[in-house]
Structures are given as structure tokens and as C-alpha cells.
Amino acid sequence: MKIEINPGLGAMAKESAMQPKEQLLEVKTQTSGLFIGVPKETAMQENRLPITPDGVALLVNNGHAVTIEAGAGQGSKFDDRAYSEAGAHIAYSPNEVYEQSDLVLKINPPSMDEIGLMKPGCSLISALQVTQLTTDYFQALNAKKITGIAFEMIEDPVGSVPIVRAMSEIAGSTVLLIAAEYLNSNNAGRGIIMGGVTGVPPTKVVIIGAGTVGEYACRCAIGLGAEVKIFDNHLYKLRRIKQELGANIFTSTIDLANLSDAIKRADVVIGALRAEEGRTPCVVSEDMVACMKPDSIVLDVSIDQGGCFETSEMTSHSQPTFKKFGVTHYCVPNIASRVAHTATSALSNILTPIILRANELGGIEDMIFAKEWFMKGVYCYKGSLTNKHLARMLNMRYKDLNLFKMARF
Questions:
Q1: How many Å apart are CA 409 and CA 149, to the nearest integer?
Q2: What is the CATH number of domain 35-150+339-407?
Q3: Residue 148 carries which DSSP code?
Q4: CATH of domain 164-333
Q5: pTM (2 decimals)?
């Protein structure tokens, strides 16, 4: 039996064959996990670590391999067993950590010897500590085409610097406890309590800098009952502190007459200015320190960026203080290391999500060019210095990172 085909159906079939058809969009597949190395810190009695065992477990569960040098977490009270149970490989030499790591996580910048051990073309996330580094350091990184990322310059999507904020909160809260320690008679201090008691005038605290360190130092000082004066040249910061703390705090711009008078009467002076152009401005002269009360306390939290007291000299946790003009100076750069367990947890809470996000985007390099807030932390990229301020300070050539970004597309 012959079957007749409707001519209309044939025409419709031919017409549909010529029409465009939907195709599946190519989806970028997630890259394989990173080999992450966490060496033991060796500089400046550093007790912090960039990641906790919980952070390691999260990374390992997402396909990353983590190698931690044996004993790295001892100072922050995280033992090797905790890291091992979280899935980390425990290495018994720094060579093993550096040589196989695509990404190295550190607190302090690596030494020249440590740079020599690093895998060519790897990425490094650590502090930068501009005032401590030389041209040779950056040349060594560039010779190995290492991508250097300063965690204190990494921003978040809303424009703040989360690691600086976290460490500043810790430093501001801790610095008042340190001041109380050195005010007591057992440490040859003035023999006064931090704060005050009924019938006795309160301790006088001067804070120079109304940023995060100044804010948290002020919170603690007010809570202890001290009389607080805050100086800063940014009126919006002074206004913010008065609004947030809701206390009748004395605030002033850094006027030398008012500042000098306040320092002369103070029991505790805290330097908490943050560098805006590479080095902290020095606003307290030797003459002003010389006029302070005998056995009063100067705490220069800004010492890692040059310090804001003319009399400041960097100290360490083993020898934290010295006296000048009869005034005790505390100038330890890594105050947060005194509470290393808390600081490590804070760092891990910030860095772990960043690494996970980077892997989702294709890796550290893709993260740099996809997220401008992360790009701001990059100072070296594949053999070139990419930070304009560093280049000017060290008289080195640099390349704008945006040029690399344009070349990728």
C-alpha cells in the first residue's frame, strides 16, 4: 500500500531544518585544587599562623592539598595532630613545604633563603612590611616570577581591608592590657591602676589616631574608667568614634599645642596612626616625650610603618620595652602575636574563603583579574613589580597590573 506524504508537512520539515537551534553554553570547569604550603614562622618571634585546622579541613574537603611544616602551629596552640586530622600533610623540613607549593601562606615576608626554596611561578600571600624590605627582596621574587600578594592590602567587596581591620581590633584591645601591665609597681611603673577608683582621679590616656586601633583602645579605656583624649586629622573618624561609643570623649585634630599639653599630663600615650603614603607621620617629637611624667608609658602601635614618636625604636616580645627620658617605650610591631590563637582564627576566617573563591574562578591568577578588591593586594606579578608606591620608594621600574589584564582579553 502506497503512503502519500502531505506536501505541507515536508515544507514545514525543510523550514525547521534551516532555523537556528539552541546549543549548550560552555561552562568554565573548576580547576583542580591548589597545593598550599604553610611553613613555620621564623622571624620576630611570630606566633601566629595564617590558617587553623578547621580552615585546613575546609580546603581539603574542597579538593586542595595542604602541607604544613611540623611545629608551625605550636606558638598559636594548634598542634600537628589537629592539622593532620584535618587532612594536612605534615612536613619535617621547610624545603618540602616550599618546593611543591603552588601557593605559600605566611605571616611575615619570606627571607631571602626562603625565597630561594620557593617554586618558580608560585603565588605568595603574606604581610609586606614595607619599611623592612629592600630592592634585593623584590628582585629575588621577580627573578623567580613569584606573584606576591600582601594580605594587609587585600580589600573586600565593600572597600575595607578585612585583615588590617581584624588585626587592628586585636591590637587595640590588647594595647590597653599591656599599658596596665607596665603601669603597675612590679614593672617599675607609676604604680597606678588603669582606669580609676572612687575618690582617685582616673588614668589619663591619650590616643593618636582614630582608626580601628584607636577605636578599640578607646573602648577598653572607657570600659576601665580612664579619661580619654583622641587626636586625628580626619574629622570624619573623630565624629564616627563619638557617635559609635556614645561617650563624652575629648577629640581634637593634631594641633601641636593641644597635643603637647595632653601628652605632658598623660599616663599612657598610644600611637595608632596608619600610614597613608608608605610611612606613618612622626607627630610626637623628642621634646614632647621629654616633658612626660616619669615612668609613664608610650605604646607605638605604628612602629611597623615607621612609628609616630621620634623616640621610638623597634623592640621584640623578648625585650619589649626600653626607657628614654624616664618614659617606658613599648614598640613591638606584631602585638597581635601576643594572642596568637585568637589572631590565627581571625586570619583563617578571612583567608580561607578567599582561597576557595579563587579556586571557583580558576585559580589565584584568575582571581586577581576577576576581582579588583583582590588585585589591590598584588605587588609583584610574574617578574614585574606592580605597585607604584613601592617602585617610587625603592627607585625601581614597575608595570601597571591593568596592562596585564588587558593583554589577557
A1: 22
A2: 3.40.50.720
A3: E
A4: 3.40.50.720
A5: 0.83
Average pLDDT rounded to a whole number, residues 390-400 = 86
Domains 35-150+339-407 and 164-333 share a fold: yes
| DSSP per residue, 176-200 | HHHHHHHHSGGGTS----SS--TTS
Q: pLDDT per residue over 142-182, tens digit each? A: 999 999 999 989 988 888 899 989 999 999 999 999 999 99
- Provide the residue type at 67 as one letter: T
Which SS3 state, helix, strand or coil, does residue 321 take? strand
CA–CA separation, 408 and 402 (whole Å)? 10
Q: What is the SS3 assignment for 104?
A: strand
Whole-angstrom Cα distance, residue 149 to residue 212? 23
**CA nearest neighbour of 382 among 404, 349, 407, 367:** 404
Burial of 236 from C-beta contacts in 10 A (0-12 / 13-18 / 19+): exposed
Mean pLDDT over 213-241 rounds to 92
pLDDT at 26: 44
